[in-house]
Amino acid sequence: MSEQIFERRNVLVTGGAGFIGSYLCDRLVKDANVICVDNFITSNEANIDHLLQDPHFEFINHDITGPIDPLAFPELERFKVRFQGIQEIYHLACPISKRHFDDFKIATILTNSIGVKNVLDLAVAHHAKVLYASSSVLYGLRVNGEHARETDACRLDHLTTRGAYDEGKRFSEAILQTYADVYGFDVKIARIFRTYGPRMKIFDGNLMPDMVLNAIENRDVVLTGDEESRVAPTFVSDIVDGLIRLMATPIDVTLMNLGSDTDYRLVSVAQKIIEITGSSSRIRFEPPGPYATEAPMPDITRAREILGWIPLVRLDDGLRKMIEYAKSHRHLITF
């Protein structure tokens, strides 16, 4: 790893203006210089507006499917990248829009191939540690209530309409492992399960924020599936904590599940939201769309034993935070 010679290490976060990425930047900027790279293809500038005046934060508008050279950006000179380099790279960039998935298929497959290569080439040049935000989709659909373990085989049909994302994530993991084998540097892979919290895009096919806003506005809360559909959500601050803990592990730790192993009936979550908001909304069921899947439950034994990590935010508390955010930011809602 590039030697940290100044008080703060330099950390680069791709997708740093996204939902999880912006919270990660919030945490990292407390004790690091943070270089946030994003092109706003599916993220939101409002997520990082509060950081733009922080002297230890810098935003770079860049598409990672093109090579990135931090030395080419004069605004990064105050981080002394030329002398200290970059110590850590969190790679979260990937177009994600369930409702408009088809609009970003090419961008998604290029990000999950060329983009990953560009990030890893940067890591090799700077001898940086890399953490990649992968996905629970690699485990396939939930089967008989089984918990997905890191040692389980990936179960994907790579020729489905979701292949740009699903197979893209698996291929990205293969690129990371190959670079680690060839160059002998430290890579981490976090398979992230369903995450929720403030800053999620509304009416973009994301179940939790859509339920919240519909309840606030007393519209029907629409659920896909039936009354037995289940969900195991993890609050975003818990996921960020897991990512930072994983990055800090020794080189022999690579793959880790991050998610909640406690699930709820989806209809019960909707009822909680309606109760907290005092809404008059009714719950209505619709058939699942083409990108609606019931993810497996994660086995988080490794995270618990190696990272000392478990999700801490109670569902009721997390929902209240989402509801408070939705009420105070309705004028900023992006569709």
Describe this structure in words.
- There is one protein chain.
- The protein has 335 residues and is an alpha/beta fold.
- The protein has a domain at 9-196 and 234-261 and 300-313: NAD(P)-binding Rossmann-like Domain (Rossmann fold, 3-Layer(aba) Sandwich).
- 33% of the residues lie in helices and 18% in strands.
- It contains nine helices and 15 strands.
- It has helices spanning 19-28, 81-84, 105-126, 163-183, 207-216, 236-247, 266-277, 301-307, 315-328; strands at residues 9-14, 32-38, 57-61, 88-91, 129-135, 147-148, 187-192, 195-196, 221-224, 230-231, 234-235, 255-258, 264-265, 283-286, 297-298.
- Strands 3-2-1-4-5-7-12 form a seven-stranded parallel beta sheet, with helices on both faces.
- Strand 4 (88-91), helix 3 and strand 5 form a beta-alpha-beta unit.
- Helix 1 packs across helix 6 (236-247), helix 3 packs parallel to helix 4 (163-183) and helix 7 crosses helix 9.
- The longest helix is centred in the middle third of the chain and has 22 residues, at 105-126.
- The relative contact order is 0.14.
- The mean pLDDT is 91.
